[in-house]
Automatic annotation (TrEMBL), chain A:
<keyword id="KW-0740">Sodium/potassium transport</keyword>
<keyword id="KW-0812">Transmembrane</keyword>
<dbReference type="GO" id="GO:0030007">
    <property type="term" value="P:intracellular potassium ion homeostasis"/>
</dbReference>
<keyword id="KW-0633">Potassium transport</keyword>
<dbReference type="GO" id="GO:1990573">
    <property type="term" value="P:potassium ion import across plasma membrane"/>
</dbReference>
<dbReference type="GO" id="GO:0021944">
    <property type="term" value="P:neuronal-glial interaction involved in hindbrain glial-mediated radial cell migration"/>
</dbReference>
<keyword id="KW-0472">Membrane</keyword>
<dbReference type="GO" id="GO:1903278">
    <property type="term" value="P:positive regulation of sodium ion export across plasma membrane"/>
</dbReference>
<dbReference type="GO" id="GO:0086009">
    <property type="term" value="P:membrane repolarization"/>
</dbReference>
TrEMBL record, chain B:
<dbReference type="InterPro" id="IPR006068">
    <property type="entry name" value="ATPase_P-typ_cation-transptr_C"/>
</dbReference>
<feature type="domain" description="P-type ATPase A">
    <location>
        <begin position="68"/>
        <end position="179"/>
    </location>
</feature>
<dbReference type="GO" id="GO:0016324">
    <property type="term" value="C:apical plasma membrane"/>
</dbReference>
<keyword id="KW-0812">Transmembrane</keyword>
<dbReference type="GO" id="GO:0008900">
    <property type="term" value="F:P-type potassium:proton transporter activity"/>
</dbReference>
<keyword id="KW-0547">Nucleotide-binding</keyword>
<keyword id="KW-0406">Ion transport</keyword>
<dbReference type="GO" id="GO:0016887">
    <property type="term" value="F:ATP hydrolysis activity"/>
</dbReference>
<keyword id="KW-0472">Membrane</keyword>
Length: 306, 929
């Protein structure tokens, strides 16, 4: 049997390629003549133009179903999450007391974060509201009526307000303030008309690995011991109902998110302490297995002293 | 068949594991997703492989059952005892006994025989039974009379012989090893699939590498880039396709088996469809494989007998008293008998003891006259001389059934010229006329004419012996010949032929309109071959051979212009003297070719000649000696009934009814499957773009990932499988038997148009539609499209748990992740909905869907239903299984992509409309795949 597959030499291959790129005989560039290229380019111009138009049209139609002020669905946000400030890369607040640079960035961030809370700005922009009840502002027939916000004054944060504070929120003395904030969710009536507060404990986070292996309730929890004492501002870590509901950034322009500051007074130095803060509110579940930040926040605290 | 893709998938799997390894070394709690993905990919490869193997094995099993049906036994004399042992235990020197009906268990030299005749047709192609005796007659083992060959059959008599060769060393064994030595080349469909795999793998690898480079230069970490690469590979490789192709082929194979084509090698299903030349046997394939009376000549007139399969319609004039005499001779001068116990079998199907011509005469008279045995009983046979090759006639003397007529009737039949010599009178219209010059001349004209039709002619005569010379008590002596055998009365001629099957002419016409050349290759005599070729249309009515033209114009053959002749008959002898170039020339220049008197070895030469013309050649054969040609052919077709096991083994296909017409239905199915595979592949390739774009957009624009790798696998191996198989049930768009066979090198399964149209037209539309669903889900949850751009890094950061959306709301990582899965599900549903439209448009390539009928292929709707049901189960049934990244999707999102689906349908209808309106135009050339 003759094997009919003849091997092409390298030169032949190059030659074939050359001819493919430009065939002088037929005036074909890449297998097509000039007119053919013109045709095909024109076709794709028109075709893709049409597709773009079609896609834009359907997108436009879709966007008509979306209001600019409130989201269509909020099913994912039934439980607001909690977060801390200063915001760090790995949710850890590490302070080397002697090393100014290690905490200066936190301080800068906090300064910037707390600027809008300055009493002067609050007084200028926001209302004084009645505590203990929701600050509802119905549209009353006027569509998308701009909403007012309640004052949250920086001074409410007491020792953590950082106003005239030589210790820089306690970072320079190893008694740092960490700020807890609850995620904004539009039209969410947090607390279901009952008062709510934030509490913190020292606690190892539940890893997947010791799932099912219960930490003994009465057992010694190192983290709790290492955490030591802390104070909260406002007192008891209360969050007032008047800051709810949130109406969305479009017309709740000056909305000021309520904060809870936690000042850790005597954290055991040179060890990593796991802290978990959670909100105690009637309508916020804090035991979601999958979402570790639903109604709670876990972070690490480490004070290095020499 | 799996090669290309599985390598890509293996690469993907290893990249997955490497990625996990790197992740694990830097972070012990790295998620196991990549490990799962890698394992799934490997599982896909293995399952596809096992599946293809299983399908192949299933069809191969059918064949092996043929072989093992009867373990061959041999009677051997060992230790002066007769023993029955399995044939494979024979050794050289064994003395074996074989009796009529047995297979010869090895190559045997005859020691003694009694009236032994063997059927060597499977070995040498001789259809006549060959006598065997102990005498050495020829140097060539194939010619000498004292050797019986392994696997041939002893028809009658008994033979005792010594084993001289066993197993592979037998003549048959040599041929079989010759067959296995012939390289089995790749089937056309395997080449096409390989070509397609190259295209897809090329696209996958080049896009993968391109975007790997882009990702790296966009400052993505190498690990992330590797993960993108995996996504791109997974998106590009149609994981389910090879399995689908296998299923599609085996479905067609099943359908063909119902039409009496048993396909051994799945890929051969399509090969039959691309066949451009069929080299067909004559005996049994084109013809009925039984001698049948075709013409009669008496009263100076030729009558035509009905040769159709049931003989029902005999219309010639039976009133003449010459016919009465002739029919009496036919009935009486005949030793053939029906085998007992066949009362309910139609006459033409009854088995007969006796040789082929006698059987033909027996059946012929039985059909016309009724119970032949009864007639013979009434005309008791007194004495007879059986036919032998020296005297070339057969004679018998009977009492008559007329009780008043005491004369004996002597009837005789034989070679016409020998019979005529013995006659002095001829019967015309029942009266005896002296045989003179002019009547002799009319006899010769008739004889030549019938002979020219390729028929075997027999002459019939009789004589009433005068009662005074031969009284009732007269004792006839055959050896002394004490009765006259000359001055008889000539009655008529009968000619017989193995007539073509009634379905064959139609099938040949079909082949012709399908652009398939039918070449007859036979060991038979050229005249017979040509006559049959003419009657079935292999040589069409108005075409002439060179000899015909010479005869018509009355000029010597050499003066005829070769170009004027469309047909030619080439004998084996001529073929022997030909160079390969001359053979090529004949094959290229003549449309209608008959090879006669060819040896099996020449068949191989003819097949190779055809293949040199770039033709896809189908060859039919039944004998062992055909097996090299069957193996060499692109598709070897063995006869199921007449075929030997060796032929069946070498063939790719077995015709269960030995009927040529079945080949044509096979061709039709083969062509259909090629078209339908095209549709399946187009359908499958389309969504690749919709699966690929998300990764590209994700890398370039930094959107949250629109669709996950696992989700892609659920499309490729879940929702899309049944629909793509369903396309195999699609009916042909037009008469596929009216177009030329596809050109092996030009008409590819996956051509540029198909790839471009699937990828850049429909695929892109689909991607846009799926993105629409994705954007809708995100927008309605609060992330409007513009907020998504370059959001990727923050979005995927586990420590950002207050990511702000368009409305100022803040999202934790898990909330975002869940939304991302909803996005996957949405994108999945978007593709799914548009794949329904894609499935519908792929039903046809040229015709409108409404011409084809939306509901004619019910399986398509089963496919659509399966798609939707699997989609629903994944979204709503498994919505809570997070590992699969599916979530419950709001019902309305199922309809978001519908406008795009409708657009796809409309666009494709427009495409088809222009193709139909302007055939051959720029549009047709660029848009028809």
């Amino acid at each position: 049997m003759v094997i009919q597959k003849e091997k092409k030499s390298c030169g032949q291959v190059v030659e074939e390629w050359k001819e493919f790129v430009w065939n002088p005989r037929t005036h074909q560039f890449m297998g097509r003549t000039g007119t053919s290229w013109a045709f095909i380019l024109l076709f794709y111009l028109v075709f893709y133009g049409f597709l773009t138009a079609m896609f834009s049209l359907t997108m436009w139609v879709m966007l008509q179903t979306v209001s600019d002020h409130t989201p269509k669905y909020q099913d994912r946000l039934a439980t607001p999450g909690l977060m801390i400030r200063p915001k760090t890369e790995n949710l850890d607040v590490i302070v080397n007391v002697s090393d100014t640079e290690s905490w200066d960035q936190h301080v800068q961030k906090l300064n910037k974060f707390l600027d809008p809370y300055n009493d002067s700005i609050q007084a200028q922009k926001n209302d004084v509201c009645r505590p203990g009840r929701y600050y509802e502002q119905p549209d009353n027939g006027v569509l998308n009526y701009p909403k007012r916000a309640c004052q949250f004054n920086r001074t409410q944060l007491g020792n953590c307000s950082g106003i005239g504070d030589p210790t820089h929120y306690g970072y320079s003395t190893g008694q740092p303030c960490v700020f807890i904030k609850m995620n904004r969710v539009i039209n969410f009536y947090a607390g279901a008309n009952q008062s709510m507060n934030v509490t913190c404990v020292g606690k190892k986070p539940h890893h997947h690995k010791n799932k099912g292996k219960l930490i003994p309730e009465d057992g010694r929890d190192e983290d709790a011991e290492n955490l030591g004492h802390f104070v909260m501002f406002p007192a008891n870590g209360n969050i007032d109902l008047m800051y709810f509901p949130y109406y969305g950034k479009k017309f709740h322009v000056n909305y000021t998110q309520p904060l809870v500051a936690v000042k850790f007074l005597n954290v055991t130095p040179n060890v990593e302490v796991n802290v978990e803060c959670r909100i105690n509110a009637a309508n916020i579940a804090t035991d979601d297995e999958r979402d570790k930040f639903a109604g709670r926040v876990a972070f690490k605290l480490r004070i290095n002293k020499t | 068949m799996v090669g290309g893709f599985s390598i890509l998938l293996w690469v993907g799997a290893f990249l997955c594991w490497i990625a996990y390894g790197i992740q694990y070394s830097s972070d012990k709690s790295a998620s196991l997703n990549n490990v799962y993905l890698g394992s799934v990919l490997v599982l896909v490869v293995i399952l596809t492989g096992v599946f293809a193997y299983y399908q192949e094995a299933k069809s191969t099993n059918i064949m092996s059952s043929f072989n093992n049906m009867i373990p061959q036994q041999a009677v051997v004399i060992r230790d002066s005892e007769k023993k029955t042992i399995p044939a494979e235990q024979l050794v050289v020197g064994d003395i074996v006994e074989v009796k009529g009906g047995d297979q010869i268990p090895a190559d045997v030299r005859v020691l003694s025989s009694q009236g032994c005749r063997v059927d060597n047709s499977s070995l040498t192609g001789e259809s006549e039974p060959q006598p065997r005796s102990s005498e050495f007659t020829h140097e060539n083992p194939l010619e000498t009379k004292n050797i019986c060959f392994y696997s041939t059959t002893c028809l009658e008599g008994t033979v005792t012989g010594m084993v001289i060769n066993t197993g592979d060393r037998t003549i048959i064994g040599h041929i079989a090893s010759l067959a296995s030595g012939v390289g089995n080349e790749k089937t056309p469909i395997a080449i096409e699939i390989e070509h397609f795999v190259h295209i897809v793998a090329g696209v996958a690898v080049s896009i993968g590498i391109l975007f790997f480079i882009i990702a790296v230069s966009l400052k993505y970490r190498v690990l992330d880039s590797v993960i993108f690469l995996i996504g791109i590979i997974v998106a590009n490789v149609p994981e389910g396709l090879l399995g689908t192709v296998t299923v599609t082929l085996s479905l067609t194979a099943k359908r063909m088996a119902k039409k009496n084509c048993l396909v051994k090698n799945l890929e051969a299903v399509e090969t039959l469809g691309s066949t451009s030349i069929i080299c067909s046997d004559k005996t049994g394939t084109l013809t009925q494989n039984r001698m049948t009376v075709a013409h009669l000549w008496f009263d100076n007139q030729i009558f035509v007998a009905d040769t159709s399969e049931d003989h029902s319609n005999q219309v010639f004039d039976q009133s003449s008293s010459t016919w009465a005499s002739l029919s009496k001779i036919i009935t009486l001068c005949n030793r053939a008998e029906f085998k007992p116990g066949q009362e309910n079998v139609p006459i033409m199907k009854k088995a007969v003891i006796g040789d082929a011509s006698e059987a033909a005469l027996l059946k012929f008279s039985e059909v016309i006259l009724g119970d032949v045995m009864e007639i013979r009983k009434r005309n008791r046979k007194v004495v007879e001389i059986p036919f032998n090759s020296t005297n070339k006639f057969q004679l018998s003397i009977h009492e008559t059934d007329d009780p008043h007529d005491k004369r004996f009737l002597m009837v005789m039949k034989g070679a016409p010229e020998r019979i005529l010599e013995k006659c002095s009178t001829i019967m015309i219209n029942g009266e005896e006329h002296p045989l003179d010059e002019s009547t002799a001349k009319t006899f010769h004209t008739a004889y030549m004419e019938l002979g020219g039709l390729g028929e075997r002619v027999l002459g019939f005569c009789h004589l009433y012996l005068p009662a005074d010379e031969f009284p009732e008590t007269y004792s006839f002596d055959i050896d002394a010949m004490n009765f006259p055998t000359s001055n008889l009365c000539f009655v008529g001629l009968l000619s017989m032929i193995d007539p073509p099957r009634s379905t064959v002419p139609d099938a040949v016409t079909k082949c012709r309109s399908a652009g398939i050349k039918v070449i007859m290759v036979t060991g038979d005599h050229p005249i017979t071959a040509k006559a049959i070729a003419k009657s079935v249309g292999i040589i069409s009515a108005n075409s002439e051979t060179v000899e015909d033209i010479a005869h018509r114009l009355n000029i010597p053959v050499e003066q005829v212009n070769q170009r004027d002749a469309k047909a030619t008959v080439v004998t084996g002898m001529e073929l022997n003297d030909m160079s390969l170039e001359q053979l090529d020339e004949i094959l290229a220049n003549y449309q209608e070719i008959v090879f006669a008197r060819t040896s099996p070895q020449q068949k191989l030469i003819i097949v190779e000649g055809c293949q040199r013309q770039d033709a896809v050649v189908a060859v039919t054969g039944d004998g062992v000696n055909d097996s090299p040609a069957l193996k060499k052919a692109d598709i070897g077709i063995a006869m199921g009934i007449a075929g030997s096991d060796a032929a069946k083994n070498a063939a790719d296909m077995v015709l269960l009814d030995d009927n040529f017409a079945s080949i044509v239905t096979g061709v039709e199915e083969g062509r259909l499957i090629f078209d339908n595979l095209k549709k399946t592949i187009a359908y499958t390739l389309t969504k690749n773009i919709a699966e690929l774009c998300p990764f590209l957009i994700y890398i370039i624009a930094g959107l949250p990932l629109p669709i996950g790798t696992i989700t892609i696998l659920f499309i490729d191996l879940g929702t899309d499988i049944i629909p793509s198989i369903a396309l195999a049930y699609e009916k042909a768009e037009s008469d596929i038997m009216n177009r030329k066979p596809r050109h092996k090198k030009k008409d590819r399964l996956v051509n540029k148009q198909l790839a471009v149209y699937s990828y850049l037209h429909i695929g892109l539309m689909q991607a846009l539609g799926a993105f629409l669903v994705y954007f809708t889900v995100y927008a309605q949850e609060g992330f409007l499209p513009h907020t998504l751009i370059n959001l990727r890094v923050e979005w995927e950061n586990d420590n950002v748990n207050d990511l702000e959306d368009h409305y100022g709301q803040e999202w934790t990582r898990y909330q975002r992740e869940y939304l991302e899965w909803t996005g996957y599900t949405a994108f999945f549903v978007g593709i799914l909905v548009q794949q329904i439209a894609d499935l519908i448009i792929r039903k046809t390539r040229r015709n409108s869907i409404f011409q084809q009928g939306l509901f004619r292929n019910k399986v398509i709707w089963v496919g659509i239903a399966s798609q939707i049901i699997i989609g629903l189960i994944l979204s709503y049934g498994l919505g809570s299984v997070t590992a699969l990244s599916f979530t419950m999707l709001r019902a309305q999102y199922w309809f978001v992509a519908v406008p795009h689906a409708i657009l796809i349908w409309v666009y494709d209808e427009v495409r088809k409309l222009f193709i139909r309106l302007y055939p051959g135009s720029w549009w047709d050339k660029n848009m028809y795949y």
